[in-house]
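This week, think about what follows.
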Amino acid sequence: MQVNLKQIIEAVGKEKNIDLQLLIGALKEALLTAAKKYFGECSFEAQYNEESEEIELFRYRVVVDDNAVSNPLREIALSEALALDDSLQAGDEMGEKLPTEALGRISAQSARQVIVQKMQEAEKERIIQDFRDRKHQLVTGQIRRFDKQDLIVDLGSYEGVLPAREQIPGEKFKIRDKITCYLLDAKKSTRGPQIVLSRAHPEMLVRLFEQEVAEIAEGVVVIHACARDPGSRSKIAVYSNEPSVDPVGACVGVKGSRVQAIVQELRGEKIDIIPYDRDPARFVCNALAPAEVSKVIVNERLHVMEVVVPDDHLSLAIGKRGQNVRLAAQLTGWKVDIRSEAKMRELVQEYRVVLSQIPALGEMRAEILVNEGYKDPSDVARMDPKTLVKLLRLSPEEAEQVVAGASELAARRHAKTESDVGDDELEAMLAGPSGLDEDVAEGSAVSEENVRDAALDALVAKSKPAPLMDPEKVDPKAVPGTVLQYWMKLRGVGEHTAAVLHTAGFTDFAQLASNSPDDIAVKTGLPYKFSGKIHAETSKVLGS
C-alpha cells in the first residue's frame, strides 16, 4: 500500500474518472476496517501523508493510572505511556502510529473489498450524475441486446434501457442498429444505475424540432405545446417572436425538408404544425385543422369548449377513433366537445325552451343567452345583473328578476333530478350516455368523458367546502392586460381563467404551486379537476 501510492491513486482516478479525494477516502476507510479486524475495536484515525505518499494509521488511547486500566483497547497505563512520551499525564489522550504491514492477509483482503466497493459506488454515482446532467435531451446509441420486450442501448460509457411502454408501437430494430432516444430519467436501482430512454415521449418531438430547425434553437420560433399519439400522429403548436418569421414555414422547411427529416426519424409519424394563438378559442380551431369550425362556445367555469362544425366535417374534426379531437384537447389543455350543426340546432332549441321558462325572459331573449353560451338556468343564476342589462337591454329591476327566477328554476330542476335519479340511474350516468345520435357516434369518447366528468365534479363538489368566489362574476376587463398575459402562459388558461386566478389573490406561479389543487378550487370556484390541471401545469413551468 506504500509503493508509489500517489501514482496508483492518480492513475486509477484518471482511468475511472473518479475524484482523487474520494479514492483517498476509500483507502482510509479500508485501512480502518482492516485495523479493527486485526487490533480490535480501538479508536483509530487514518491520514494520508503526501510527503511520504503513504496512508498512516494511528491508534488513540486514554492515559489512566496503572491500577485503573479496565479496557486495554481504549486505555493505556500511565507508566507505559510515560515510556513513550514523558510529558503525558493521567487523563490525556495519546496517539501512536501503528505499522500497516502487520495487518495480515485476511485484513488486507477486507481492505481490498472496501476499496473495490467504494470505487464501484463512486463510478455508479458518476454515471448517474453524468446522465442527470443530460436529462431531457436526445442521446444516440446502438442496440446492444434484447431483454424480453425491452431494448438495451449502448450509450458509450454505459447502457440505457428502452422499456416496451416507451417504444413507438410497431417499430422494429435489430442488434447494432443506430437509435436516437429521449433521455427520460437517470436513477439508482438495486441492479446499479438505470438510464431510462424513450421514443414515445412528446418531448422527443420537441427536441427533434430544436435539432432540425435553427430558428427554434436560436429562440426566434418557440414551441408552445406538443401532443402526440406515438407512431401515428402528432400536433405541435409554434409561434414566432419576430413578425417577419413565419413559425409554421420555418418548421416545415424548404419543400418540407425539415419536417420530413423528423418524420423519417419517427418512422412515418404524421406531424401537424399548428400556429399558436393567445385566444384559446382560435387556438382550438387551429388545433382541429384540417376541419373547419363554424362556432365555438366557451365555458370558462367548466373549462370546456363546445365546437360546432359543418355536418360533413364532423368525422374529419373527430378523426379516426377520436384521434384528432383528442390530440387537440391535449395540445390546448381544454376539454373539447365536438357537435355537428344539425345536432347543435336541436340542442339550442332544447336550451331555449328551458331558459324561456325563466320569468321576465321570453323565447327571444332566451335564444340570445343560448347563443352567448348560457345553456342552463344555473348559468343564468350566476350572471351579474349588469351583464344582463347590457346584453338583453333590460332594466336593473328586470335583470334582478331574471337572476332570481333563474335561481328558483335551477333549484327546482336540481331537486327534481335528485328525486328522479336513483342509484342505478346515477351509475348509468357515470358510465356514459347510451343513446348517442348517429352523427355524434364517432365522437362518443369525447362526449362520454364530458358527461362522466360533469357527474363526478358534481359529486365531488358536494363533499368539498363551498367556493369563496363565483368565477362567473369576474370581469377580465377589470384586470390589467399584463397580468392576464402572465397567467395565460399556462397551457389551457384563457383570459377569463387568468382574471379569476388574479381576483382570487394569486400573484405568481410559485404562490399558485404552493397551494394544493383543492385549495385552488375553493379559492377560485373553478372545477376541482381543472384546478388540478392548472396546478400540474404550473409545477411543470416552474420545473422547466
Notes: The longest helix spans residues 105-133. The longest strand covers residues 178-189.
